[in-house]
């Protein structure tokens, strides 16, 4: 690659949330087929938020991948308080091509992705019962905010995302905020209800809980609220 035409960074972030394992998604995105797809589509970075599966993937899986895909920088972590820091790396910027966030269908994660205006592929976790993740993923795609990804065919979802991006840009256009502007009092409960259009205003919002344990407490709190919202 010449100095006049340097290779742009392109990031793919995969996030599974903080409250439940999503081993199937992690396994698929580190498969040879998917990694070859990423490299062929000019991706330079793959970042995995592994949650409770972090120890297994970091010790047993990732070390075997680096020698086989040297042009793809693969990193992983367990939890983080503010996932939007990683999400913003998937935005187009100087020296960086627009990437993608592949996430479980958790309300808090989806709203974070929409807030920072990154391309989303939303994958329902089939191990979670009666949590409406499929309905949410379907609604996200219907409204043009992202693509409903299916396990076993995530690379196809990334291909479809390219066709969806223009619609997403029109429907969820970012706007500038004055430095001295007062912060908005946004209620996650009301936003989620409005997105789905299927919950009554009178429905009582969940009681706030305090995140317990170690790192990622903020993420755990958001996922707890999201799960109660969708329950």
Automatic annotation (TrEMBL):
The keyword Chloroplast belongs to this UniProt entry's keyword annotation: no
Database matches in Pfam families: Glyco_tran_28_C
Catalytic activity: an N-acetyl-alpha-D-glucosaminyl-diphospho-di-trans,poly-cis-dolichol + UDP-N-acetyl-alpha-D-glucosamine = an N,N'-diacetylchitobiosyl-diphospho-di-trans,poly-cis-dolichol + UDP + H(+)
Subcellular localization(s) per the UniProt record: Endoplasmic reticulum
Region (Disordered), start-end ranges: 203-231
Enzyme class: transferase
Keyword Glycosyltransferase set for record: yes
GO MF annotation list: N-acetylglucosaminyldiphosphodolichol N-acetylglucosaminyltransferase activity
Recorded superkingdom: Eukaryota
A GO CC term attached to the entry: UDP-N-acetylglucosamine transferase complex
Keywords: Endoplasmic reticulum, Glycosyltransferase, Transferase
Alphabetized InterPro entries for the sequence: Glyco_trans_28_C, UDP-GlcNAc_transferase
Family indicated by similarity: Belongs to the glycosyltransferase 28 family.
Record function comment: Involved in protein N-glycosylation. Essential for the second step of the dolichol-linked oligosaccharide pathway.
Quaternary structure and interacting proteins, as annotated: Heterodimer with ALG14 to form a functional enzyme.
Stated name of the protein: UDP-N-acetylglucosamine transferase subunit ALG13
Native species: Colletotrichum siamense
Organism phylogeny: Eukaryota, Fungi, Dikarya, Ascomycota, Pezizomycotina
Gene: alg13
């Amino acid at each position: 690659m010449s100095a006049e035409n340097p290779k742009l960074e392109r990031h793919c972030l995969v996030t599974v949330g903080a409250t439940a394992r999503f081993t199937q998604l992690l396994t698929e995105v580190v498969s040879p087929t998917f990694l070859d797809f990423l490299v062929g589509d000019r991706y330079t970075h793959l970042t995995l938020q592994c949650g409770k599966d972090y120890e297994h993937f970091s010790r047993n899986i990732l070390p075997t991948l680096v020698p086989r895909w040297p042009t793809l920088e693969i990193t992983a972590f367990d939890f983080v308080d503010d996932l939007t820091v990683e999400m913003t790396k998937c935005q187009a910027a100087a020296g960086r091509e627009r990437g993608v966030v592949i996430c479980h269908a958790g309300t808090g994660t989806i709203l974070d992705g929409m807030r920072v205006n990154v391309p989303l592929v939303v994958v329902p976790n089939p191990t979670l019962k009666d949590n409406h993740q499929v309905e949410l993923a379907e609604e996200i795609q219907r409204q043009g905010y992202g693509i409903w990804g299916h396990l076993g065919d995530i690379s196809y979802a990334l291909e479809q995302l390219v066709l969806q991006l223009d619609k997403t840009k029109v429907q969820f256009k970012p706007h500038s905020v004055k430095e001295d502007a007062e912060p908005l009092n946004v209620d996650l409960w009301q936003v989620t209800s409005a997105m789905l259009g299927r919950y009554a205003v009178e429905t009582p919002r969940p009681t706030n809980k305090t995140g317990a344990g170690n790192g990622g407490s903020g993420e755990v709190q958001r996922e707890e609220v999201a799960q109660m919202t969708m329950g």
